[in-house]
Structures are given as C-alpha cells and as structure tokens.
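Table S5 (text form). Sequence records supplied for joint modeling of the two-component complex.
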Amino acid sequence: MQEFIQAAQSMLIFANHFNSNVFHLICLMEKDRVFLCRALEIAVQGVNEGGGPFGALIAKDGRIIAESWNNVVLSADPTAHAEINAIRKACEILGTHDLADCILYSSCEPCPMCLGAVYWAGIKKVVYAFDRKEAEKAGFSDKFIYDEIMLEPSSRHVRFLHIPGCCNGPDPFRKWNENENKIPY
Amino acid sequence: MQEFIQAAQSMLIFANHFNSNVFHLICLMEKDRVFLCRALEIAVQGVNEGGGPFGALIAKDGRIIAESWNNVVLSADPTAHAEINAIRKACEILGTHDLADCILYSSCEPCPMCLGAVYWAGIKKVVYAFDRKEAEKAGFSDKFIYDEIMLEPSSRHVRFLHIPGCCNGPDPFRKWNENENKIPY
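The corresponding structure-token record, covering 370 residues in total, follows.
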C-alpha cells in the first residue's frame, strides 16, 4: 500500500510538472501571436500615415520596447525599414548595440538588409507573418534581393567590382588588429 | 587617289575614336582606384577615432558626396556600418531615397545588411578592396551571415518563426494595394 501511494504521488508530481511546462509553452505561443498581431496593426497604421506596408516591434522580457513602420519615402532614407527603425530605436532606449535578449516581431519576413541587422544586433528570435513571396506580389523587391545575394558578386545585376590591394596603401584590418584599445563587436 | 584619301581619313577617325574610348576607360579605372584608396584611408581613420575598420564613400558624377566609417560601438547602433552611414548621408544631402546615379566605394565587400541597402537605394555599381573572408580573419561575421542567409529560415542559428495568418486580422499588403495615394518605392 505504501509503495502504491508513493508511485501515485510521483505520477502526480510528474503530471503537474508536465502541465506547467505545457501551460508555459502555450503562454509563450500566445504572446508570439499577440505581438505579431500588433506588428501587423503597426504596418496598417504605417500605410494610413503614408508609409510602406511593413510594421515591426522589439520585445524584451515579455514587454514591447520599440515599435516602427517603414517610412522610406517620407524620410528619404532607403534604410528606413520597419525592422531597422525598431532595432535602432530599441538600441537608443537601451543604450547598447547588443539586443541579445530581445525578440523581433515583423509583419513580413525581414529582407536581406534587415536580416543582416538582426544578426549584427545579436537578436536570437524573429517572428513574422507574411513571407518574401507575398511581399513580391505586393510589388517589393525582397525576393529579388534574396535571389541576387545567392549569386557570385560578379554575376549580379548590380556591378560588384573587386580591386584587391588597390593602392598598396592603408590596411584597416592590420590597423584594427594592432589597436590594443579596440572594442570588438 | 580620292578613294585612298577617304579611306585614310576614315581610319584616322576610327583610331581617334578608339583612343578616346580607351583613354576614357583608363580614366574611369583610375578614378575607381583613387576613390577606393580614399575609402581605405577613411577606414584607417575610423580605427584611429575608435570606430570599426571599415570605410565607405558615395560618388556622383565623379565627385564624392558622402563619406563615413563604421561607428557601431560609439553610436550604440548595430546598423551604423560605413556603407549604411554613407548611403544615409548621401540621401540626406540629395533629399531622396534614390541613389541610382551613385557609386559606392567600400574598403570591404558589403555585408548582407549593406548589400540590401545598396539594392534598396538603387545603386548600380559597388567597388571594394577586401572581401568577406578577409573580414572573417579580422574577427567579423560577414561570411557567417552570408552563409546563414543561404539557408532556409527554419534552419538558421537565429530562430525564424513563420506564423502565417496569425490573427485573421489586419492585412497591410491589401491595405497598400487599395491605397490610391501610395508612392511606390
């Protein structure tokens, strides 16, 4: 009888633990959906305000710390995508270039430029709703740039001209390696 | 005799035209080298000022209109690469997001983020000295990000979570297509 009670108690502890983990996972998934819906709302708001149809936000510790939409035309800045804007805002607020503890929520799959920014910012998770093919249907070059980036530099539509050792002169990487005060990033 | 003179004149005109084109080509190549050396100088200057070892400039009609080095750490902005900074400066000066008539000179092959910015800015030519492998040897992730971007989103080191139709709600692309006042970019 004693053994039976002990086995039942163990099963109960396991079940509680299992339920708690599943509950935690459901909460996380629900939070992802809530934040992603907010990114979509921001994108629609962006169109209403004369911006492009893309919205993004940065979350840290379960809270939104920066939001933005695409305002390329309004700000005359081709880098002013929703994700880049949100990353720059979040960095300004936190006072660091390192967003390792942050999650990016974006209405659309980040383009190669914004994907690069995600990696340089150290972001570990990106959640998005639409993808590059849907962006292409709406008239945006995301998929084209992804296709171009896969090619050798010399085979792209943009002319990439590599001139190694062009002036036997300044070598920034040697200078960097020799600099004892450098802050690696 | 008349025919001989005409043929000689035609050959002379062709030779002059040919020489002029070759001369023009040599001048162009020389200008590429001069501007690229300047980008390398800017990169070295950047290291001296506490920046990263990357320099870039934007030229239009044979003149430099914007220069910058990488100041990610100093400005606490992971997007503050030399190329992005130079593109943003040039756009501010020209008052447009479109740099179709401009050339980017960069000390190093642009990373995926900066390559994306080149395409979004409509730049048609990029000249660079070092490449992604040399950047890797100096401790920078350019090659790693190029390798990551080639993978399916779900296979990357950064977790890319695609949730299509997440809230049956706002559709920014439909909103964009329906907007008669939109300015395509």
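Note: The helical segments of chain A are 2-48, 72-75, 82-94, 112-121, 132-137, 142-149, 172-178.
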